[in-house]
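Data availability (excerpt). The following record was deposited with the supplementary files.
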Amino acid sequence: MPAVSIQLRLARPADAAAIAEMSRDLIEHGLGWTWTRARVERSIAAASTVVLVAEERQPAAGRLAGFAIMYFGDDQGHLSLLAVRPDRQRAGIGRHLVGWLEESALVAGIGTIRLELRASNRAARRFYERLGFAEIARVAAYYGGVEDAVRMAREIRRGPRGPLPDVRALLRL
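Predicted structure:
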C-alpha cells in the first residue's frame, strides 16, 4: 500500500454526504440509518459540535479517510461518531482524530469525554481502552432495541504532574 499523507480539518457542508455514507456503512450497519446527510449538515453548522475529517493529500487528494463528530458541553464532551475507512485503519488516523478533539476539549474547559459503542464491537473497545477510556456502564437495547451499548469515559483534565486519576478510580469514590 502506498504511503498516504493525511490532514485533519473541520468538516464543510460539502463533506456531509461522504460522512453520512461512512456512518451508514461502517457504524450503523444493521441498525437503521440515523446519521443522514441532513443530520451531519446540522452537526457541522452547530456551534456546540465539532465535525472533524481526516482527508487524504496523496495519492487520492480530497478523499476522506475518516471522521469524528463530538458534542462539546459545559464540562463534558460526547464523542458521537468516529470512523476510519477499513483500508486506512491501524494507521493512527483514529488516534489522531481523538487526540485533536481531546486537545480542543481541554481548551474549551471540558474535563471528561464520554462515548457509546456496540457491546459486540471488540475492536473498537480495545481501541478506546488503549486511549485510556474505561467502561462506566452498559445500556441494554441502546441501539434501537437491537443491540446493547458499552458506555465509556475518559478524564482528560491534567493536573500539575500530568493526567488526573483515571475515571475508574473516580467512580469508586
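Summary of structural features: Residues 167-173 have pLDDT under 50 and may be disordered.
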